[in-house]
């Protein structure tokens, strides 16, 4: 990877894993375009990272395709061609079969899946035209092994499949693709999800359990370094720990048993 002087566009880049990735990129001399729905968080991230590299920030809801195009044009005008795209913005609601509503489906798929599609469709043609670039889409360990959180798992399985297919298709154009499948990571995503829309908020009794689970994993800065190391190694899947291993083996065995 040629880090120094390149330009990265990071959605959800003002907090959580996105900020961890941005910090790792900044340390390598990458110019940063950070997009997020949280304006104050963007200001804090810019204040921090501007001491290390050139930074621009943009308020962006990844569901808004027209705004995505505007922001992409502004970023490339101000920083240069974007060669590194991190489709990282996402939400983590909790809805089992009895909790499902059309509203929940629409919101989760719009952010977690269509938001990734919007990032790809905005920047990929530009990368193909330059015959260079790398895309990292953030999915989840739940995109490889299902749990009862139906809409979340659906969106993340879709991002994994999208990324695997896109990698096969984009490599002949000089564009690499990886998918980040984090396990527990200590972020503020539970609160951020509820702030986006009250219907996505995790039930109060589940919040302590979910937060304890997330805190059991690595911090966002450690994850940022994992992501960049995996990109340098050309890995198609990026993991933040080995906690998914036994579940992946069990799922694979069950699949093969059904052939």
Automatic annotation (TrEMBL):
SMART domains: PKS_KR. Gene3D superfamilies: NAD(P)-binding Rossmann-like Domain. One of its GO terms (molecular function) is oxidoreductase activity. Residues 6-188 form the Ketoreductase domain. It comes from the Bacteria. Pfam families: adh_short (PF00106). The keyword Oxidoreductase applies. Keywords: NADP, Oxidoreductase. Belongs to the short-chain dehydrogenases/reductases (SDR) family. This is Short-chain dehydrogenase.
């Amino acid at each position: 990877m040629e880090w120094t002087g390149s330009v990265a566009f990071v959605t959800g880049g003002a907090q959580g894993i996105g900020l961890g990735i941005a910090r790792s990129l900044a340390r390598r001399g990458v110019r940063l375009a950070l997009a997020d729905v949280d304006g104050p968080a963007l200001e804090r991230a810019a204040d921090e990272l501007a001491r290390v590299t050139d930074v621009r920030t943009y308020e962006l809801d990844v569901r808004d395709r027209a705004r995505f195009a505007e922001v992409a044009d502004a970023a490339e005008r101000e920083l240069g061609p974007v060669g590194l795209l991190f489709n990282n913005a996402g939400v983590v609601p909790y809805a089992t079969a009895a909790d499902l509503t059309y509203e929940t489906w629409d919101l989760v798929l719009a952010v977690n899946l269509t938001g990734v599609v919007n990032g790809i469709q905005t920047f990929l043609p530009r990368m193909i035209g330059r015959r260079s670039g790398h895309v990292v889409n953030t999915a989840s360990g739940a995109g490889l092994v299902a749990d009862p959180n139906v809409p979340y798992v659906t969106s993340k399985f879709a991002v994994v499949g999208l990324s695997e297919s896109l990698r096969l298709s984009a490599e002949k154009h000089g564009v690499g693709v990886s998918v980040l499948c984090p396990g527990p990571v200590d972020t503020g995503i539970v609160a951020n999800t509820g702030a986006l829309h009250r219907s996505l908020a995790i039930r109060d009794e589940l919040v302590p359990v979910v937060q304890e689970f997330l805190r059991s994993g690595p911090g966002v800065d450690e994850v940022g370094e994992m992501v960049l190391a995996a990109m340098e190694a050309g890995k198609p899947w990026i993991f933040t720990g080995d906690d998914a291993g036994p579940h992946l083996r069990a799922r694979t065995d069950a699949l093969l048993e059904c052939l």
